[in-house]
Amino acid sequence: MCHIFNFIFNKQFLLSILGPLIATGTALLVFYLTLKKDKGKEKKRKKAEIKNRIRNFKNLLVSSKDHAENTISNLSQMINRYENDLISFQLLRFSPNKSFERLDQNLKNENYFQAFIKNYGKDKVDNFNRISLIIDYFNLQIESLWKMVERAQNHDYERKKTFNEISKKAINTIARLTIITVDRISEEELEYIGQILVDYHINMVNSIEHNYIYLRRFLEEGLRNQISNPNITDLIEDIKEASELFNEIQFQNQCHKEDLIQIRNEMQLSLDRYNFEILNLE
Length: 282
Hints:
Keywords: Membrane, Transmembrane, Transmembrane helix
Transmembrane segments: 13-35
Order of helices and strands: HHHHHHHH
Oligomer: single chain
């Protein structure tokens, strides 16, 4: 029995048994502490990511609101200019702001949704969904607005191009009337037509309105007694066609203005809802 105790408490024996146990325990402790530290780092990293995503989200909300306000302001300026001038086509000012597009991309990312939930809570999910819908509206509306303005500008350009071609042709024909003999047009009438033609060139400006005004003067003053003259039928038709085009240009720009008013009002209502939903996040 004494030999057994001596063996068990033998220093070499204890070292051979306890050494590996201590080494294993130390390794486990180091592993545990390292794991705990790594988990702490991961937790901090995720917290930082959430903070960055929310900061980016808030910045884009502010930027997108500015973009919507600027677009509405630009529309109001276009509408006001049309109130005073239905001849000149009004251009929409370009904005390089892409915040609505970036918001749309971010909110479709699951990580941003989870960050939103972590920061604002699950009770704000409805706000998130409503904000997403408003962002979708602005993205679609701004894109369609640019396309609408581009189409209207192209149509306006084509109408004015045709008007200029017809009016130039008509004025050249009128100029020839003053140097050739045309049956049933008196010398007095030709002299008056010549005076109008001189006024036309003296007051020349690069404007379809200028051409329209003088074409109407030629028709209503210089040629008022020649409407039924078969020798100038083509000229009369050209002047009438140019007049119809001029009126059509104004009418189409009036319609375009009304479309812009409707879009501006809809965008303002959406912006008001957008502001309300953003305030409700706080």
